[in-house]
Specification:
Elements: H1 26-32, H2 39-49, H3 55-62, H4 67-77, H5 85-91, H6 97-110, H7 116-125, H8 130-140, H9 143-153, H10 160-183, H11 186-196
């Protein structure tokens, strides 16, 4: 295309006419995921199309993006629906903290039950402030995450403050009665109520 004089197509850092992205096919858009000035727009266009075969390419590009681009694109990845689950779960292990955070938030939007265990692992291993966001997402998954949260809170290696946030959010998301029922158990009640309050 460059040889034919079509300057709207990127060639190794050239200019891209982002107004023409809607007319481009998936192969061209996937190529633009490597273009520093067009990758965000190309990723959002691919998300709008919702083709599950393209979700891997989009999220591979997300992991290379700076924070502002990650925030805007990860929010659109939910357009892929459940097909985005695997790449978002994989994103929980990304090197960049903001990619882990964006992945957790997107999983919370999708409300996938299969994300509970990976989110729980991230909650227990996260050393940055992202753990608070992960705890919120876990709590908002409601009944799907309530029992795994309780089991994990009983592990001796677990820090109680990690579960304070998650259990409080779970209570706010509809698990309050279940938490109160557990609190009636003399052996666990006092500790769990202290954590959740």
């Amino acid at each position: 295309r460059a040889a034919k004089g079509d300057e709207s197509v990127a060639v190794a850092g050239g200019d891209v006419d982002v107004s023409k992205l809607a007319q481009m096919g998936p192969p061209e858009l996937v190529l633009l995921l490597e273009h520093p000035r067009a990758r965000r727009s190309a990723a959002i266009e691919l998300c709008k199309r919702g083709d599950p075969e393209l979700v891997d390419a989009v999220y591979k590009a997300v992991r290379k993006m700076p924070r502002p681009e990650v925030v805007s694109v990860a929010a659109k990845v939910v357009c892929f629906g459940e097909a985005a689950g695997d790449v978002l779960i994989d994103g929980l292990s990304a090197r960049k903290t903001f990619v882990r955070q964006a992945s957790a938030i997107a999983l919370g939007q999708l409300k996938l039950r299969r994300a509970v265990v990976p989110l729980l692992h991230l909650l227990q291993s996260e050393e940055s402030g992202v753990w608070k966001e992960v705890a919120r997402v876990l709590g908002e998954l409601g009944s799907a995450s309530y029992r795994p949260l309780l089991r994990a809170s009983k592990e001796p290696k677990s820090a109680e403050d990690l579960f304070a946030y998650a259990l409080a959010h779970a209570a706010n998301a509809g698990s309050r009665k279940a938490l109160q029922a557990v609190a009636k158990d003399v052996s666990e009640g006092e500790r769990l109520m202290r954590i959740a309050q």
